[in-house]
Amino acid sequence: MLLVGLAPGAHGSNRTGRMFTGDASGVWLYRALFRAGFASQPDQRDKNDGLVLHDALITAALRCAPPANKPTPGQLRNCFPYLVSEMELLPDLRVVVGLGAIGTRAAQEAMRAAGYDFAARPTFAHGAETTASHPRTGSVTLLSSYHPSRQNTNTGVLTEPMLDAIFTRARALLTERVSNP
Prior knowledge:
By secondary structure, this protein is α/β, with parallel strands linked by helices. The protein is 39% helix and 16% strand. The chain has a single domain (2-179), classed as Uracil-DNA glycosylase-like domain (Uracil-DNA Glycosylase, subunit E, 3-Layer(aba) Sandwich), CATH 3.40.470.10. 41% of the residues are buried. The model has no long low-confidence stretch (mean pLDDT 90).
């Protein structure tokens, strides 16, 4: 599973050296990843805290923290080739989770650029699911989720059960793929 977020957090991963580590979004995210079996522990502090991801990789649409957490189209364009390259380097990729509208849109565009063809036009909505196929690597499912930002979690737009449902579905998709290659 490849998880695509917005950008490194200025006070989180820029400081700690690991995506979604050291900020409020990471608290929510790593607890959900742990409950779904993608992380070895629910807590995260820094890149040396012992946390290990299983069957998962976390990346972002941007490689730097954008001012006011609002990326410009130019910033997204400049970082886009890195996301495409990451996808091309993952021949066993089976699930992509886009966090937030920007992470989901970046994942869709990178998948297209990496040679994936979508069965239907992807849309962003929490829990939206779309399948894409690749001539060499097979099918990949794109799942969309609201971003676990404080803006979403403090207002109830995103709840822990909602986030858990995304990663439970991702785990089920990976398990189905192993059972039915």
